[in-house]
Each structure stands twice: as structure tokens, then as C-alpha cells.
Design goal:
The protein has one domain: Protein tyrosine phosphatase superfamily (Protein-Tyrosine Phosphatase, Chain A, Alpha-Beta Complex), CATH 3.90.190. Strands 1, 2, 3, 4, 5, 6, 7, 8 and 9 form a 9-stranded mixed beta sheet that branches. 30% of the residues lie in helices and 21% in strands. A hairpin with a 4-residue loop joins β7 and β8 (136-145). With 255 residues, the protein is α/β, with parallel strands linked by helices. Residues 1-29 are annotated as: Disordered. It catalyses: O-phospho-L-tyrosyl-[protein] + H2O = L-tyrosyl-[protein] + phosphate. GO terms for molecular function: protein tyrosine phosphatase activity.
Length: 255
């Protein structure tokens, strides 16, 4: 509780209304040579059904926390980042430049490959992240999911959401680090992604799922996740969508 209260006071690093993490499951920023002495970032490790710390659910960066966000991606060896926002319209701190340009943020240089892959429900970019202190460079695939209307509690359809979850999972299979998910408060969009992803994994492996239990499990890390009935019902809709899409799931038990 003391850590939670302390983290709440870091008003320059938390967006108003954001879900404040405790220290128990929060990544510490430790990259050698950092100019900022604080290890705080509004982010938490999230387990998938099969893999511990499969995800990091992060608050979308503020203009003053972009370097922290890039530090997180670099130090955790994250090769996939999923965004649920437009950086301009949602007033998110810019952490990658326009296509084929260079963005310098503190200790980092970020470049964007000129080839941008635009799909029906997301945009995929390849970023190059260079840590200027030692010259190391890491490649990052950035997915911007575009089928979640601004102001809505849920995506446009379960089918498109399931599609992007599967696509991200395929991209990250060879990744040695967690998948970074980020949204304005660190919980609303990220929490729904983690919940549905875990339900789909459990269906595949055990042929039985409990939406209630999975929501509770996700809420132990992100208290504001699945905070309304619309999102709760959407979880069920995704499960039913998956069952209806294949005979493989015809005997799945849903609670």
C-alpha cells in the first residue's frame, strides 16, 4: 500500500485517471547510464495462460515520459508493441517519427522504416531503436490497432479483435521479451486484450473457460481493467465468436 500511495504522488509520470500500479509487478527502469534516477514507470507485467510475463500493460507515454517508455521497450528486449491510439488525436507522447525519419529522445534515436503495412484493422510499422550510450540497436514491430473507435468501451467487432490478438501472438512467438500493450490509462484497452487473449489460450488447451475468473485474475494486476458491463459482455462475445468459427471448440464449456 505504501508503494501504491507513493506511485500515486508521481503526478508528472501518471496521466490523470490512470490506473496506478503497485511495485510488486511493476518493471523497474534500470538501463545503465540513464540520466533519470527514478525507476518508476506506469506499467505492469501481465501473465498469459501459458507464459509468465507475456505482456507489459503500460500507460501510453506522456510527453515527459517518452524516454521512460523507450527505456522500458529496450531494457525488456521487447520486439512487439501494440498501440490502441492515434498519437496525435489522443495526445500521446510521440515515441516514433514519421516514415523514414529520425526522432531523438534523450538517450535514444528512433527511426521508422518507410514501408508501412496497412491492413483492414491495424497498421504495422518497423521501428529501429538505438541506445546512444552504447550504440546498441534493436528492431521493434509496432502494431496500431484501428478498429476500436475513440470513446467506445469495446472494439467494433469480436472477429477483428480476435484477429489482431492471433496476429500479435504469431509475431511474438520468436520474441525473447514481453509484448508491450499501451493505452491511455494502462488498463482499459490493455486489460481487455489480455483477458480475451488468455481466454482464447485456455479454450485451446483445456476446452473450458471462466470469464469471471479470468477477469478477476487480470484485475489483480490492473485494477481498472474490465470496469464496465460492456467490456465484460464483449469477453463472452469473443469466446462465442471463437467457438462458432471452428468445430474444434464445439465442446468448450463457458462459465
Amino acid at each position: 500500500m505504501k508503494a501504491l500511495k507513493r506511485n500515486t504522488t508521481l503526478t508528472n509520470k501518471n496521466r490523470e485517471g490512470a490506473d496506478i500500479p503497485s511495485d510488486e509487478n511493476r518493471p523497474r527502469l534500470y538501463l545503465p547510464g540513464r540520466s533519470d534516477t527514478s525507476d518508476y514507470i506506469n506499467a505492469v507485467y501481465m501473465d498469459s495462460f501459458k507464459v509468465k510475463r507475456r505482456y507489459i500493460a503500460a500507460q501510453s507515454p506522456l510527453s515527459v515520459t517518452v524516454q521512460d517508455f523507450l527505456t522500458l521497450i529496450f531494457q525488456e528486449n521487447c520486439t512487439v508493441v501494440v498501440s490502441f491510439h492515434d498519437l496525435i488525436t489522443d495526445k500521446v507522447g510521440v515515441f516514433y517519427p514519421a516514415d523514414n525519419q529520425v526522432l531523438v529522445v534523450g538517450d535514444f534515436e528512433v527511426t521508422t522504416d518507410r514501408k508501412v503495412d496497412k491492413r483492414d484493422n491495424w497498421v504495422m510499422r518497423t521501428l529501429s531503436l538505438k541506445y546512444k550510450k552504447d550504440g546498441r540497436v534493436k528492431a521493434v514491430t509496432h502494431i496500431q490497432y484501428t478498429d476500436w473507435p475513440q470513446g467506445s468501451n469495446v472494439p467494433t467487432s469480436p472477429a477483428s479483435f480476435i484477429h489482431v490478438i492471433h496476429f500479435v501472438g504469431q509475431l511474438a512467438d520468436a520474441s525473447s521479451g514481453p509484448i508491450v500493450l499501451h493505452c491511455l490509462d494502462g488498463a482499459k484497452h490493455c486489460g481487455l486484450f489480455c483477458t480475451v487473449s488468455n481466454l482464447l489460450e485456455k479454450m485451446e488447451l483445456e476446452q473450458e473457460v471462466s470469464v469471471v475468473n479470468e477477469v478477476r485474475r487480470v484485475q489483480t494486476r490492473r485494477r481498472k481493467a474490465i470496469a464496465n458491463i460492456e467490456q465484460f459482455n464483449f469477453c463472452y462475445e469473443c469466446v462465442l465468436q471463437q467457438i462458432g468459427s471452428s468445430n474444434t471448440y464445439s465442446n468448450v464449456g463457458v462459465k
